[in-house]
Write a structure and sequence with these properties.
The complex is a heterodimer. Chain A has twelve helices and no strands. By secondary structure, chain A is mainly alpha-helical. Chain A has one domain. Chain B has a domain of 66 residues. Chain B is globular and about 45 Å long. The chains are: A mainly alpha, B alpha/beta. Chains A and B meet through helix 1 and helix 4 of A and helix 2 and helix 3 of B.
């Protein structure tokens, strides 16, 4: 367990410390919090717009974080020689691969939790705005809350992280990532609505399913192929071809009115778990069969 | 298996292959090697002679294509065997985003040390390698010598019975080199078994009890340093030759 904790901590720290991950997070939060406000005035349906923007941000940003973060950490571990330094210790290759994959998942979970919580707050804000519009007949000004949320979600964390880096030598990128998560959690608690949270978080969790397949594929193929391009291409094909049914089930459910019934959730889990397990088993086979140098 | 034997290689060979499994390089060929408990054993040879490949087979990182390797009587891939050894690679492979303290805590975690024990051991080792003042700085900003000292400390974090050092003084200044040699001698005095490679024959002569000279993946000589009867450098050049120097001299003339 102590070996696992060390590997998970180092891996999550590495991925969350990647400037690319912070850039993707900022872009995703901008999409989730600002993009809906632009569309409200043209198309109406504020809460639906907010929900779709959040899911899009999580799908796209999550895929980048899952694929790039995982592939980069495994490739760097093997190419820079830190894998051989670790595998010369009392840790088996199977454990090393699986714990490292879990570390990638932890980093991905931090990213998706931040985007999900911000989306939850935005959708709640949009629902309130919509209710005011119905009562008063005047479309509520939605730009103000959206901008405030964007500032709270990623501008404040960046400024605080910069100050902590300057005066206390805290790691800028990791601090900014974790502060974003903390502020997103605080925002969603402030405007908490149990029914909305249940529906939206289920939908957001399901939309993350393809990213989990992509994460497992990236881990497995990064230890198999020497070329980054080949590894990436095979991972993308695997994630697209393997039955990431969660995505399709989610689409069906959303068309039916936004709620995600339990049967869709179970179907998604049943389709994702075997794919992730098969890819991780392939990764274990690949790392046990290769020379590490 | 004799309890006294820590490392045993019998007829070991390693041939690297390309993507189509065609043999490309025969790095090690029919190598027999035995390292006994408490010994400081030097693996010497010119560049490309198969020293690092041999060490990586002992560590279970590379699979031999012929022969057998055992460490403490076990397969080198077994976790039990590797729990008893420490390894300093040829280059200081460190995670650049971790601080020196986090690096040692990471390797202490891999050695399954409890957190309190790991913290105490980390403090002790940082003091030993004189990096206490920069313990909280990421190793990405360290000089080659400082990174080398972190790597050396991480090799010792699990209090190994067998220490494998691949070019331990590579990148170190003369003062640090002397300190490493003193440390190796002190560890050997305390009963640690040490397998080291080095290009610097004077260093090997100072610290090794027994040496093996490799050339083109084969053992060309093996024996106790004290029994050589001449300097290790003369012995080495007699066995391996210095043809490259003659070619260069002819070219310059």
């Amino acid at each position: 367990m102590r070996r696992g904790r060390a590997i998970v901590f180092a891996t999550a720290l590495e991925i969350l410390g990647e400037p690319l991950v912070l850039l993707v997070l900022v872009a995703s939060l901008a999409v989730a919090s600002l993009a809906p406000a632009m569309h409200y005035h043209q198309f109406g349906e504020p809460s639906r717009m907010a929900r779709d923007a959040g899911i899009s941000a999580l799908l796209l940003g999550g895929a980048v974080v899952a694929c790039a973060g995982t592939a980069r950490t495994f490739r760097r571990e093997i190419e820079s020689g830190t894998a051989q330094a670790a595998l010369a210790r009392s840790v088996s290759r199977t454990a090393f691969f699986l714990w490292k994959s879990l570390g990638c998942f932890v980093a991905y979970a931090v990213f998706s939790a931040t985007v999900s919580l911000v989306s939850l707050t935005v959708v709640r804000g949009a629902e309130i705005g919509g209710a005011i519009a119905l009562e008063t007949g005047v479309m509520a000004r939605l730009w103000g809350p959206s901008l405030a949320l964007a500032v709270a979600a990623f501008v404040i964390p960046m400024l605080v992280a910069a100050a902590l880096n300057r005066f206390c030598r805290f790691r800028f990128v990791i601090t900014a990532n974790l502060l974003s998560l903390a502020l997103a959690a605080a925002g969603s608690l402030y405007s908490f609505d149990a029914s909305l949270a249940c529906r939206l978080l289920t939908a957001l969790a399901l939309s993350a399913a393809p990213s989990l397949v992509l994460l497992s594929a990236s881990a497995a193929f990064a230890v198999r192929f020497r070329s980054n391009a080949v590894s990436l291409a095979v991972s993308l094909v695997a994630a697209a071809v393997l039955p990431a049914l969660g995505n399709y089930c989610l689409s069906d459910a959303l068309v039916d009115g936004g709620a995600v019934p339990g049967q869709y959730f179970m179907a998604a889990i049943l389709s994702i778990v075997p794919a992730v397990a098969a890819l991780l088993m392939a990764g274990v086979h690949f790392i046990n069969g290769r020379d590490v140098q | 298996m004799n309890d006294d034997v820590v490392i045993s290689l019998k007829g070991v060979g390693k041939t690297f292959r390309d993507f189509w499994l065609r043999p490309t390089v025969k790095a090690v060929d029919a190598l027999d090697l035995t390292v006994r408990r408490g010994e400081v054993f030097g693996l010497l040879g010119p560049n490309g002679s198969g020293k690092s490949t041999t060490i990586k087979m002992i560590l279970g990182l590379l699979a031999p294509t012929a022969g057998s390797v055992s460490v403490f009587g076990l397969s080198p891939r077994s976790v039990e065997a590797r729990a008893r050894l420490g390894y300093l690679p040829e280059l200081s492979y460190l995670h650049p985003y971790l601080t020196a303290r986090e690096t040692l805590m990471y390797y202490a975690g891999l050695c399954d040390l409890r957190r309190s024990v790991a913290a105490a051991r980390t403090r002790e080792l940082l003091k030993m390698v004189k990096l206490e003042d920069v313990a909280n700085r990421p190793v990405a900003g360290f000089s080659k010598g400082m990174a080398r000292r972190v790597a050396l400390a991480s090799a010792l974090v699990g209090k190994p019975e067998l220490l494998i050092l691949d070019e331990p003084t590579s990148g170190l200044d003369p003062v640090s080199t002397k300190e490493v040699k003193t440390l190796v001698k002190a560890l050997a005095m305390n009963g640690m078994t040490i397998l080291t490679t080095s290009h610097l024959l004077a260093d090997a002569e100072d610290i090794c009890d027994r040496v093996m000279i490799l050339d083109h993946g084969k053992s060309v000589a093996e024996g106790r340093v004290a029994d050589l009867g001449e300097s290790l450098e003369e012995f080495f050049l007699a066995k391996v030759g210095n043809a490259d120097e003659f070619v260069l001299a002819d070219f310059l003339a």
